[in-house]
């Protein structure tokens, strides 16, 4: 009998880097000798971990922007990762991959129908990539509230992962799983990562020759019979943040029997060990900001310098989103569509599983004229861009004059341009006015300047 179980979970994710108008990633000189950071991190992390079989033995989630890029630009690595997950599924009838809300939105900050959309799109994307239903879902930045957990549970998700500082209760059962009772009477399982152990690996990683000593120092004393230890960290730790990471991960995965622990994955462990104890969740908490999500709302000490731009940018995006929604709902209702159900299903078009007219036919809209079909599909695509504006990366860093906030503004421009063509309503003036309040402490530009620049490029 194993003394102790160990699971290592990797959160594999990259922010969207492509030009929103061309779809290509501009050359990133700081990623040299590679053309951009996606290429460099693939060479340092994704490719070696896939080649050495590490994805077969860890638990992981693969963000949508990264998965799409790998699929198009590093297909051998992408296929190895997908095959690893499918093999785990074939052996155990349970996968080791977790789904992820598709645009990495901080869900507690989103409205209910957008939470539902992100969760449904994330599940549908997972099903499309891995060929089966996901059992678990990774929450972006582990940001959590009860409404999000209720939606996960309602959509068939059985578990998620939180960090030990995000829960209240007795953690004697190690990583759990624990049961969390939800306000609507349902429940969901939570695995709790060991923050100190996870950080010990992420920031104090040993060299490959010293993995045995590290295991004795960090894992052995934490092992308790029949309990699970959970390390959860950014997947890029293994080879990118820590150059020796892929090799060290491989050695930890191989060392299990010799050190008295047994490797497992989360879905498998949950099936064998249903939750016994209960925990409460600390709402509006996240693993990467302990200021009640202020990192993505008002700014906080997590980023250096003046961060009031974050609130101003969120207001500009929220106002635009509200206007886009109003026009979409008005037009969808006029054409006899059920707007949010149709939007939730639109991910099949985004993933290339069906074309737009087929989706509308499936939603009893075959009576629409060619002109009406074009208009409704343009408004659905505008909703897709509107969802992209809220990627957590938009608000994560220290200044609005950098790639990630520009990407959000560019997606706003895409959404309002599509809407303008479809309905004749022009939202550009109000959006630009709101962006004037967003000031860069670095360049003194306002986001309205960024808007003008992006708009002129879009017109080219
Ligand atoms: Zn913070």
Report the uncertain regions. Answer: none
Span between N and C termini?
A: 66 Å
Task: Tally the helices.
Answer: 18
From the spread of the alpha carbons, the general shape counts as globular
How many beta strands in the DSSP annotation? 10
Query: What letter string, H or E per element, gives the SSE order?
Result: EHEHHEHHEEEEHHEHEHEHHHHHHHHH
Structural class, please? alpha/beta
Distinct bound molecules: zinc ion
- Rounded to an integer in angstroms, the radius of gyration calculated over CA atoms is 22 Å
The biggest beta sheet reads: 5 strands, parallel
Helix content: 40-55%
Mean pLDDT: 96
Question: Multimeric state of these chains?
Answer: single chain
In words, what does this structure look like?
The protein is of the alpha/beta class. 47% of the residues lie in helices and 10% in strands. The chain has 18 helices and ten strands. The strands form three sheets. Strands 1, 2, 3, 8 and 9 form a five-stranded parallel β-sheet that branches. The protein has a three-stranded mixed β-sheet with strand order 4-7-6. Helix 1 links the parallel strand 1 and strand 2. The longest helix has 26 residues. The model has no long low-confidence stretch (mean pLDDT 96). The structure holds zinc ion. The site of zinc ion has 6 residues, from loops.
